[in-house]
Amino acid sequence: MRRITLLILMLAMAKVSSAQDLKIGVRAGQNFYKMLGPLESQETQNLSGGFHFGITGTYYFNDYFGVRTEILYIQKSSLLENEGQVFTFVDVNTATSSTRNVEFGQGKYTLKRTFNTFAVPLQAVIKPIKKIELFGGVNLEFVAGSIGQGNLDFDNFDPTCPISFDQTLNFNYNVDEALDFNNSNTAQLTINYDRDGDGDKELHSFRKNIGAYRYFNEEVDKNLIRAFDLALTGGIAYYINPGLYVRGTFDYGLLDITRQEYDYSLEEVPDEVTFDNSFIFRDDFDRKIGFQVSLGFQF
Q1: Is 9 helix (H, G, I), strand (E, B) or coil?
Q2: Torsion angle of the four alpha carbons 222, 227, 228, 232, in this order, in degrees rounded to the nearest 10
Q3: Which end of the chain offers a freer environment for a tag, N or C, measured as fewer CB atoms within 10 Å?
Q4: Domains and their CATH numbers in the chain
Q5: pTM for this one?
């Protein structure tokens, strides 16, 4: 009886040992992300599409359990929209003075932020049945670059000095400078504007394309978007055959990705606007959430 029991144990250990395997593969697909955090009364953050690709490595201890890591590029993005009462600044420079005026109006502020992200997931893997795989863990994420593209459609409320324009937002959070000093796009918008406050309107020109820190008066020494993020991740995969699979993944960010000193209200300004005091800043906790749909192969 002991010999039979020993033989069964030896056979079981041999089966477990033979099931140990390292699988290397690739996966790619579509993803949808957005920023999740406190919103102003007119503000929305909507899912925005991107893509991802990378290499995967999974070590299976046996037929049911394993661990995985990956090296991924993920194009994450989020679509911000603020429609209703909006504001803009008009900087007036004369021979004797410089002032910043704030103009309120009706319009729509639209900005798609894109985060070029390299991610290293660390995951535990469970295969309850042959064709189904469940996984979960954490993502270490490094934002290599972040940009924003959109526009501001503006019409003011003042019938005595109407202002209407469509301004392009072309943000590169990593390299843009205060007051757009490094903005080489010289395209201009022209409006009729009471520059001196004397009731007489004059032609006034300003930039059609503005950068991320156009209305900041001091040197920008940091990025609005933080370079490191940490996220919970999990999902399910279905194996079409031993190598080919489709996978769904959900990510939930754990860190605040925006810096307060550059995260400002889109609806409110200080009672007295100056070059050094143009914004009301928001200490919001903004995280990224989203999901991926992938097609992958491992061998």
Answers
A1: helix
A2: 120
A3: N
A4: 23-298 (2.40.160.20)
A5: 0.88
